[in-house]
Specification:
Elements (H helix, E strand, L loop, with lengths): L1 H4 L2 E5 L3 H13 L3 E5 L2 H11 L3 E5 L7 H11 L5 E6 L3 H10 L3 E5 L5 H95 L4 H40 L4 E4 H16 L5 E5 L4 E5 L1 H19 L7 E8 L6 E8 L6 H6 L17 H12 L3 E7 L3 E9 L14 E3 L4
Parallel strand pairs: 1-2, 1-3, 3-4, 4-5, 7-9
Antiparallel strand pairs: 6-8, 8-13, 9-10, 10-12, 11-12
Helix pairs in contact: 3-4, 4-5, 6-7, 6-8, 7-8, 7-9, 8-9, 9-11
Bound molecules: adenosine-5'-triphosphate and magnesium ion.
């Protein structure tokens, strides 16, 4: 009952008898009724009182019902307007419905309960429209929040990808330090040997006790040791050179021509500290003379992720695991390079295989895995290199990744550029 009392109805009709009878009838049902004797007044009241529903006659002097109706629809399209129409006024009634009237009743009113029915029906519909509008607004707000979260997620992902790159670079630096340590260590030992021997010879010489055999042995030692220093320093220099190139390749997306096998070997040396202790071996099956014009940094990222994953996920307990790279060119045309990577580690279940390229998928959460490694590899292969990558695995037996890369590599700035692969046939 309380609800009905608050409902305000505006009746616009030029016939006082109609207004009075509608007013009287509705007030008996606890509606609050305001009435207006012409269209102009009706509109004024409409704006002042904001009624919940309007009854409006069609034929009125000064401003007719259709005009009133279209003005109300413009001001408040969700307020129900019910037309009061004379018998035989069908054309105008149809026009009113077209303009936005919600319902109509026919004069003379014989059964006043028709009014109640029409009011109820219209108010119900208005409530539904309002509810729908609230849902729509809620949905819009929710959608905006979701878009915002998605945007934040994208930004976080970019940051993670960036930090993953930096971590790879950090690993590389550790690899460089480790590898260079050996030749530098040997050179230091050799240099200190030269220092000791030279000071011995010097003492003998100063004391006038230097024998011919002492000098001959010294010269022989010097020859061998200086040669060892030279070989080890040369090794260190060449390691520094290739590491420098890999580090630059990882941080800068530059395209250059390189020998695939040599580059693969250089990257594997940088990864040695990561797999040396597991006792696993890495075999490469690749022609010596495959040269490609591509993004070496991209290959370095792919190789690093594959090998580290084999070590971490494939051989967590296994000693003497085996990793193999088989590189080949498509036989029909020299337009595709295929990299078949395999390890004989623990393998993956069907579910793991289906998720391996998903960002953030990891079975090592909380133990250092971010789950971005293979999704980065997937993006590099499919986007940077324009190729495809597939994963197959048999739990307990092996894991295999098959990468196929067209030799037309997408360019960093222009859409595509022809990368080329050259094989020098030695006869
Ligand atoms: N060679 C493999 N052998 C067995 N499982 C693997 C191998 N490579 C990947 N996986 C599985 O796929 C998952 C996803 O690999 P991915 O490299 O994307 O993430 P991650 O190694 O767990 O973490 P991140 O590389 O970010 O440190 C791994 O958690 C692992 O379960
Ligand atoms: Mg990984």
């Amino acid at each position: 009952m309380n609800k009905i009392k608050t409902i305000k109805i505006l009746v616009i009709d030029d016939e006082p008898y109609i207004r009075e009878s509608i007013k009287g009838f509705l007030e008996d049902y606890s509606y609050r009724v305001i009435d207006a004797e012409n269209g102009q007044k009706g509109l004024e009241y409409f704006e002042q009182e904001s009624p919940d529903l309007v009854f409006c006659d069609l034929r009125m002097p000064r401003m007719d019902g259709l005009e009133v109706l279209s003005k109300i629809v413009k001001i408040s399209p969700d307020t129900p307007v019910i037309i009061i129409s004379g018998v035989g006024n069908i054309a105008d009634t149809v026009e009113a419905l077209r303009l936005g009237a919600w319902d109509y009743i026919i004069k003379p009113l014989q059964d006043m309960t028709v009014l109640l029915h029409s009011i109820e029906k219209s108010l119900e519909r208005a409530a539904l429209i309002k509810e729908k509008e609230i849902y729509r607004k809620d949905l819009e707000a929710l959608n905006a929040r979701l878009l915002n979260s998605l945007d934040n997620l994208e930004k976080t992902k970019d940051k993670l990808v960036q930090s993953e790159k930096m971590a790879a670079l950090g690993g590389l630096v550790a690899g460089v330090a480790h590898e260079i340590n050996t030749p530098v260590g040997i050179a230091i030992t050799a240099a200190s040997f030269i220092k000791d021997k030279t000071s011995n010879v010097q003492e003998l010489y100063t004391a006038g006790n230097l024998k011919k055999s002492d000098l001959e042995s010294y010269l022989k030692n010097m020859g061998e040791v200086s040669n060892s220093i030279f070989i080890n320093m040369e090794r260190a220099a060449s390691l520094i050179k290739s590491f420098k190139q890999i580090a630059v390749d990882q941080s800068v997306e530059n395209k250059r021509r390189f020998n695939f096998k040599r580059y693969l070997q250089d990257v594997l040396i940088s990864l040695k500290p990561a797999y040396r202790n597991t006792g696993c071996t890495v075999n490469i099956d690749c022609a010596d003379d495959i040269e490609i014009l591509s993004y070496p940094g991209a290959y370095s990222q792919i190789i690093s992720n594959l090998v580290i994953n084999s070590v971490v996920h494939g051989f967590p307990n296994k000693k003497n695991g085996e990793i193999s790279f088989a590189i080949s060119m498509s036989e029909l045309s020299n337009e595709e390079l295929t990299i078949r990577y395999k390890d004989n580690g623990e393998g993956m279940t069907q579910e793991q295989v289906s998720k391996v390229f998903e960002p953030f998928y990891t079975t090592m959460r909380g133990q250092g895995g971010t789950g971005l490694g293979m999704s980065i590899v997937y993006n590099i292969v499919t986007q940077t290199l324009g190729g495809t990558i597939e994963c197959r695995s048999m739990p307990g037996v092996e894991t295999e990744f098959l990468i196929t890369v067209p030799l037309v590599v997408p360019d960093a700035d222009s859409a595509h550029s022809k990368a080329f692969l050259k094989i020098n046939y030695h006869v």
